[in-house]
């Protein structure tokens, strides 16, 4: 099991600054079909491209975690809300210009609904 987990990748859907930081950190990869594990989103990126990349990343067996800037996640919230599998895990992260708002994070809202405060005492 540890060997299989070691072969999993992180994917990122983010603005240029976020993607650049993670790519410099070494997460950038291409699979055997030469598809990258990242999408750089700018103001001209069509929402359909973001949706297509998200669907492609969730369908890839080599991706375990998808990092997405929260403001971009808001653009495709209807698709993220449909994602119900544990892997790949979807993590919404802040961007340089947009702070993180936990009330918008649908995965966090679902997790809060599974537990109550008494579970942690």
UniProtKB/TrEMBL annotation:
Q: Establish whether keyword Transport is in the entry.
A: yes
This entry carries the following GO cellular component terms, namely: proton-transporting V-type ATPase, V1 domain
* One Pfam family named in its UniProt record: ATP-synt_F
Q: Which UniProt keywords apply?
A: Hydrogen ion transport, Ion transport, Transport
User: GO: which molecular function terms?
Assistant: proton-transporting ATPase activity, rotational mechanism
Q: How does it assemble?
A: V-ATPase is a heteromultimeric enzyme made up of two complexes: the ATP-hydrolytic V1 complex and the proton translocation V0 complex.
Q: Which family does it belong to?
A: Belongs to the V-ATPase F subunit family.
What's the stated role of this polypeptide? Subunit of the V1 complex of vacuolar(H+)-ATPase (V-ATPase), a multisubunit enzyme composed of a peripheral complex (V1) that hydrolyzes ATP and a membrane integral complex (V0) that translocates protons. V-ATPase is responsible for acidifying and maintaining the pH of intracellular compartments.
UniProt protein name: V-type proton ATPase subunit F
This protein's species is: Amphimedon queenslandica (Sponge)
